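re: ur question from the group chat, yeah i did fold both. here u go
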Amino acid sequence: GGDLVGKLWPHNFFDLVHNVKAKYGIQDEDTYNFNESSFQMGIITTQKVVTGSERRHQPKALQPGTYEWVTTILAISTLGYVIPPFIIYKGKNHLSAWYQELGIPR
């Protein structure tokens, strides 16, 4: 094997994808792209802040400290089928109803 990353890496990557799909019988309609993204939920406002003259005309976003991180996972198939987003909030407890409504096996 040559370099893992180099001029041919896109070609090598798609060869690998093709070989794995062939080996395991994965159809195009069973191929999905997933994307994970995290963001901060809260209140952000701009306010007047007293700073040195070197910061003139450079507004600063202030976070009052009331925020939480949320993660989303999105997926779409090669045929354009979109799975509803999976939104993950910070939590301390699980409720059994969450799993019953989704039909997740026990």
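okk and heres the other one u asked abt
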Amino acid sequence: MGRRRLYQAPEAALGILAAIKKAIEGRDGKMLSSFYADDALVRVIDRNNPPSKPREIRELAAITTFWDDICSRAMTHKVDTTIADGDNLAFTQVCAYSDGTKAFCAAMLELKNGRIARQTVVQAWDE
């Protein structure tokens, strides 16, 4: 008896995930912002924003500013692992600043009507 795949992600979710990967690795803040719903929420958890008090970036204008800032930095981004399960997407990425500092990020995204409605980011970096 062969292995059976229990779930297959819809082609649309896989397409969105591939486009997000391309935008992240290309440092394209405008493209990244285009994936979010107008009322989206991005929560960031890291050393400065612990789980009990995460940074919350609400609505498209603030999310656009967030991505424009990140994409303007002298650093590289490489998306490693991507997962799509229905309307839920996840990925990990490694980043490197020009001074050699490394960062790691794991992100979970929830889609509604084909747009990112909620995203949770957990990140750590060299100190």
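fwiw on the second one: The two ends are 50 Å apart (CA to CA). The chain is about 25% helix and 45% strand. idk if thats what u expected
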